Amino acid sequence: MTTPRFRTFDDFQAHLDALGMFHMDLGLGRMERALARLGLDAPFCASVQVVGTNAKGSTSTLLAAVLTAQARPSMRKRIDCPTWPCRTT
Question: Is 3 part of a structural domain of the chain?
């Protein structure tokens, strides 16, 4: 009879943690480094990406309205919010 590799759940969990495959890094560091290596760390225009499961349309519309209301008159015509994607041109 073989002995089990993990005697307890804590042993199993420690093994999974040691693999480093299940760690969630919620920071933007990796994306910032990738953009810098690609020479894209200074965007040529301001933009907003609204993501998620629900309320993207209403969030994008509200954001466009706030930006339009607060923008200088010369910038108002540059705020664009089509259904998909919402972008500042």
Answer: no
